[in-house]
């Protein structure tokens, strides 16, 4: 702390940890049963859309949550959650190629939305910082760097035809080809996106939110990262739209507004995604794989471990 963010108190860290573990807990509730997921990702959003969000997330509100991007991000994340539940719980749907393409499609759309926002933030020409839609931003080359990193992240999405549903009680959507190098590259890119475009909200919307889905993917249910990501993202977006003053008034933690921090964060994101793309391209070339059909990381230790823990 001190380089990326202003130093926060012990209470600030306690709130951050509470956010992480609350998201993880609700994610587990949402994946434990079909009705848990329906309650969180269908019934609750309908109620909030009708009775709450028109007031708390009204366009142009003072907390920056009343923008097209926040609304689109929330509903696209919810669409992902419901689509993944359909794959998990509708018999035979996980055998259809069109259905298996949906996770990759919704993931790519979500990343692309953020890339557009990064490029848009550059177009604001706020070289010394400024406020747009009641959010502080600083335009710079980091927006272009991270936008490119996001596009590389989309290009490296692979192996969706290998998605299947686990045979245990939770019936998780398992994507074996989404191994840890891709997840880490995504995390670097997405954190840089939140740092660039959400700035003073990124302590929670970036760091806490990413940790809340990465921990389950590595230690609770391997192979189900996208399911964890969609559910925690939807939960956070719903919370932000319901309690918009959280990051500004209740528990604010501001970035240092340091151009060097913006540059370094986006440089790491670009470098990691470029390295991933090179590694993936080499496997495709050396093994003569078709990136639109084949599972590129099949045979790697990480891939085999996911399959071993989730009987296909």
Structure in words:
The protein has 312 residues and is mainly alpha-helical. 66% of the residues lie in helices and 3% in strands. The protein has helices at residues 10-32, 34-51, 53-56, 68-89, 97-123, 141-155, 180-197, 202-220, 225-242, 246-250, 259-287, 301-309, and strands at residues 130-132, 135-137, 164-165, 173-174. The strands form 2 sheets. Strands 1-2 form a two-stranded antiparallel sheet. It has a two-stranded antiparallel sheet with strand order 3-4. Strand 3 and strand 4 form a beta hairpin. Helix 1 (10-32) crosses helix 9 and helix 7 (180-197) packs antiparallel against helix 8. The chain is globular, with a radius of gyration of 19 Å. It starts with 9 loop residues before the first helix and ends with a helix. The model has no long low-confidence stretch (mean pLDDT 95).
Give a short summary of the structure:
Helix content is 66%, strand content 3%. It has helices at 10-32, 34-51, 53-56, 68-89, 97-123, 141-155, 180-197, 202-220, 225-242, 246-250, 259-287, 301-309, and strands spanning 130-132, 135-137, 164-165, 173-174.
């Amino acid at each position: 702390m001190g380089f990326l963010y202003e130093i926060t108190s012990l209470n600030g860290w306690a709130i951050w940890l509470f956010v992480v573990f609350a998201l993880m807990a609700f994610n587990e509730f949402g994946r434990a049963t079909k009705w848990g997921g329906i309650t969180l990702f269908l019934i609750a959003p309908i109620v909030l859309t009708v009775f709450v969000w028109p007031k708390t997330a009204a366009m142009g509100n003072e907390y920056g949550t009343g923008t097209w991007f926040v609304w689109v991000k929330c509903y696209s994340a919810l669409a992902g959650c419901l689509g993944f539940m359909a794959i998990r719980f509708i018999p035979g749907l996980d055998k259809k190629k069109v259905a298996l393409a949906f996770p990759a499609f919704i993931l790519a759309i979500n990343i692309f939305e953020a890339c557009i926002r990064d490029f848009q933030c550059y177009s604001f020409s706020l070289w010394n910082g400024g406020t747009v839609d009641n959010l502080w931003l600083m335009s710079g080359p980091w927006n272009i760097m991270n936008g490119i990193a996001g596009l590389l992240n989309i290009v490296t999405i692979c192996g969706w035809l290998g998605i299947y549903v686990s045979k245990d009680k939770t019936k998780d959507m398992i994507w074996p080809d989404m191994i840890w190098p891709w997840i880490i590259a995504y995390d670097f890119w997405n954190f840089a996106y939140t740092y660039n475009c959400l700035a003073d909200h990124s302590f929670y919307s970036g760091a806490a939110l990413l940790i809340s889905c990465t921990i389950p993917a590595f230690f609770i249910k391997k192979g189900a990262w996208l399911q964890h990501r969609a559910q925690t993202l939807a939960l956070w977006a719903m919370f932000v739209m319901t309690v918009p003053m959280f990051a500004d008034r209740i528990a604010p933690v501001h970035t240092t507004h340091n151009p060097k921090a913006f540059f370094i964060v986006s440089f790491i994101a670009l470098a990691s995604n470029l390295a991933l793309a090179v590694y993936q391209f080499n496997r495709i070339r050396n093994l003569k794989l078709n990136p639109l059909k084949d599972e590129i990381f099949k045979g790697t230790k990480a891939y085999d471990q996911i399959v071993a823990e989730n009987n296909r």
